[in-house]
Amino acid sequence: MSKHNLLEGIDLSKLPKHVGIIMDGNGRWAKKRGLPRYEGHKEGLKALERILDFNLIIRIPYLTVYAFSRENWQRDKREIEELMSLAKHLINDKFSYFTQKGIRFLHLGETDMVDEEILKSIKELEEATKGGEIYTLCVAFNYSGRYEIVSAVKKMYEDVKQGFLSVESISEETLKKYLYHPDLPDIDLVIRTSGEQRISNFMLWRVAYSELYFTEVLWPDFKEEDFVRAIKEYQARERRFGKA
Ligand code: FPP
Fold first, then answer.
1. 86 close to ligand 1 (CB < 6 Angstrom)
2. Fewer CB near the terminus (10 Å): N or C of the chain?
3. Which fold has domain 13-144+186-235?
4. Is 92 one of the catalytic residues?
């Protein structure tokens, strides 16, 4: 079946503007097959590539994927190295894919603890794709939602101290400006795979009014059809943002 046929039944005029994906279940996918965890992450990267390709057709304007949290540094050294090597693959080997397809690449997260070589490649990729108009891919990497808010508060405090900002003028809009990439809209829909039903420190500020979609599918098995199912479910829901 052509990937375009999958769009049947989706109201393209009412797509979520920003979808966040918590790609969970790589380890369990591997364990079920008696494989090392790395094989699960490798298949997880392929699943991500499938969704990136498919988004060239469906065109959700902003896609944010949770690739590596600050908590993930507590995993064993070998698994961390393997995840870093997959990150390098995504950033380096797909460089021309992102530039040619018109995908703007953004990193969300801190730079501490991350290998200098990876940081340099991220900067180059962000620079090379900054004019990308088809969609924006944000990769949450060395990311923690609480840390993002704490670091915003620290930056804001500096501006108050320097006299650029008065305490009385601080509003939600002000704080938003100190988050990573303030131009990003709130997340409309969060998809989490593998049956876990948690937010796990993902994009805390921007998920305040998100619709949450949980599926039992393990991330490496996640296909275009599953993505479409989540979008359709989102479109069937009524969003009230606290109003009656
Ligand atoms: C969660 O599965 C997944 C991750 C911590 C990493 C997500 C990574 C990818 C999809 C591959 C691409 C990687 C990068 C860095 C770009 P889990 O390992 O927690 O699975 P489990 O809960 O079944 O053990």
1. yes
2. C
3. Undecaprenyl pyrophosphate synthetase (3.40.1180)
4. no
